[in-house]
Amino acid sequence: MNYRNLALLTDLYELTMAACYFELGMFEPASFSLFIREYPPNRRYFVSAGLADVLSYLEELSFTPDDLEYLQKTGLFKKEFLDYLKKFRFTGDVYAIPEGRLFFSNEPLLEIRAPLIEAQLGETFIINALNLQVMIATKASRCFHAAWPRKLIDFSLRRTQGIDAGLKVARACYIGGFIGTSNVLAGKIYGIPVFGTMAHSFITCFQREIDAFRAFARVFPENSVLLIDTYDTINGAIKAAEVGREMNKEGKRLKGVRLDSGEMSELSQKVRKILRESGLTETQILASGGFDEYKIKAVLDGGGDIDSFGVGTKMGVSADAPYLDMAYKLVDYGGRPVLKLSPGKMTLPSEKQVFRFYSKGGKLEYDVIGLREDRFEGAEPLLLKVMEKGKVTLKLPALDEIQKVFLEEFSLLDEKFKSIEPSEERYPISVSPSLNHLKEEIITRIRKDELGES
Amino acid sequence: MNYRNLALLTDLYELTMAACYFELGMFEPASFSLFIREYPPNRRYFVSAGLADVLSYLEELSFTPDDLEYLQKTGLFKKEFLDYLKKFRFTGDVYAIPEGRLFFSNEPLLEIRAPLIEAQLGETFIINALNLQVMIATKASRCFHAAWPRKLIDFSLRRTQGIDAGLKVARACYIGGFIGTSNVLAGKIYGIPVFGTMAHSFITCFQREIDAFRAFARVFPENSVLLIDTYDTINGAIKAAEVGREMNKEGKRLKGVRLDSGEMSELSQKVRKILRESGLTETQILASGGFDEYKIKAVLDGGGDIDSFGVGTKMGVSADAPYLDMAYKLVDYGGRPVLKLSPGKMTLPSEKQVFRFYSKGGKLEYDVIGLREDRFEGAEPLLLKVMEKGKVTLKLPALDEIQKVFLEEFSLLDEKFKSIEPSEERYPISVSPSLNHLKEEIITRIRKDELGES
Fold this sequence. Notes:
The structure is a homodimer of 454-residue chains. The first copy, chain A, is of the alpha/beta class. The first copy, chain A, has 2 domains: 3-122 and 327-449, nicotinate phosphoribosyltransferase; 198-288, Alpha-Beta Barrel (TIM Barrel), CATH 3.20.20. The first copy, chain A, is 41% helix and 18% strand. Chain A is built from 17 helices and 19 strands. In chain A, β6, α7 (163-175) and β7 (180-181) form a beta-alpha-beta unit. Chain A starts with 11 loop residues before the first helix and ends in a 5-residue tail after the last helix. At the A-B interface, α1, α3, α6, α7 and α8 of A face α1, α3, α6, α7 and α8 of B.
């Protein structure tokens, strides 16, 4: 995607508020904090993903003459403000939890400090990028957990919500433990391994199913995964096995078969038997069709004999939780820490840090959300400075490195927080005494000033 | 979005199948049909949307040297095939139900006839584009139905699944009856009216809430919608009314207030009373925060006194149905009509047409899915030829025109199919005798040839 021309990809109010700040001369530094209020159903952790896009966006953010002409035509903005936008660049600092790390509800994933307008203007894009990618990396990690040690491939592109989602989903699910994607453009852009089999249309193009199998095996002798459910899965497996034996005679090997419908636990066992009886012990069984963490678990609990899963739509849109309760809130303006009191939406004031504590065995034990300047011995501060004065300061790791970060930390999280089922377990998080104190102080002040309470 | 470089935005199997067809010399014309198998929960119709993107994509589809270099590096493709891709263009015909029209389950929304590889290759993008936009236009129409005659504005951009979705959602919900969007880029690209209010951060930037209200009203005297729930909604309404009275004295008018949290039925009545008592009879109440068709209905049924709704996340991701069961299936190859028998996924063979029958009063009465060459007196054929030999042949209507098409046809659909609640009602659809006959013929042939039945 091209991030050079996304300045207008924003809610109108970001620009009207900015115009107001401009006219009132409100240019003091502001701090905003991004966090997720509540866990979606059955989740008890989040996987950080999407930071790379946010940093590119902030580095490139500027208004084209075309953009300014459109804004002028809306009739909402004065010339002086449009002149200001003409030279607009983001010059602030960003702290963030790196991609691949685990984090928990109410923990700041990202904090921005910049002159008020600069810190405000990116809100819409920043939430858009992080909401999607954290949601998908988290969903993918649940599939990874349910399927382990079996392999997972992203098959979601046709039903991701748009093409940008198609790319970001491929990247985010790779972070969350997938081994590859069917999405060729994601393969090209991100260097993710690409995988593919064949569609039912390939089978129906041929007079007979076995003709289709033979044709594909001839063109891709090293890479044939035959789709066997077009007419009848067992019948298809028998034909695939026949083609597999023919390949063996020529010194080739049938890489796999794909099941795409029906009751997979039983079917996969029967198909395995057919393959074994033909001596095709290395031929893999790939299953696809409506899989997510719940169906993976159900099919495996039912005795499914499957080597890998093509996981599509339900992962690609995070179907059971298609959005996060993610917010980007002002926490400090001009050195004055602030918060909002709206029911169910209260925020933590000031610039913060998340401190992670480990057990003696190296496992994740608990987190403390504190003020940025808090210090706790033996704790790891999770937010790193990733951008200073508008320039990226932390070398962004390669995607494989990010996946490694995830795999490593996920292995250190207690199983009870990884369960895909409903549970009352919550990872232990507390608020530091200094942050709590500040929050209470501000609430008292608001109650007095705004609501007339004493 | 730039559709010139989306040739690789496809599942790898589209390309491996194409390589196979190329090597086998399978260039005969194929027909594919796109349809939605099942209604998502509580839906009983769909709104056509997304065709414009599909046609742009097909017109522009080509492989860049960069794309071909990547494909070559995968090691999967022979030079001859890559040379073929170098000159690849889509040269086929497309029939489709125009945007804004209503259609129903199993009805072909789009049919493509082209040399096999050309007809196959676009599958992933075509489903991606239509799945999202039909889903959102349909969801939006449900919000429109629940809110009517109140106005709806798209507030979803921050939590749409990516930036392409952000744009397509703004367009699709406009088709489905929304009056505008907060998404400035969508406003610029599609000419959709843009709307905005203010964020909580705007309020908290100021020492006091009323300072924020006064500042905004001064900069936007014609366009101030004040957000009143940052600390306490009733308290905020009293302050907004004070600012409204101040504006009246200067000959200005407070455009509106926005509620964003709390129990909206009761709150909106109380806020209305406060506004009325201040003589602010023209000041509108806009409600936002977790709205979809269900919450709109609940708040209005509860006596909510609201003029317009900002509808965000749940519409923008179609939260209760975040994907459609949309498929793109081969229905004819080389003059041989085909289908697949996979359990629950059987298809209708051959090129088709949808015939719409109207009652004497002009209401939608029933549809017949038939063969393309079927003729029914008094019926309207819904699929129009929109592309011939790779060139768009039907002038694409402006977005306002498409919305009019929707509004007109939606008014002709019986209320029982529009209900947002669960219901057993289904719009009457039948399959023509000639299509049914063809389908039975092919099933008999497959049972005999593939499954050895007699």
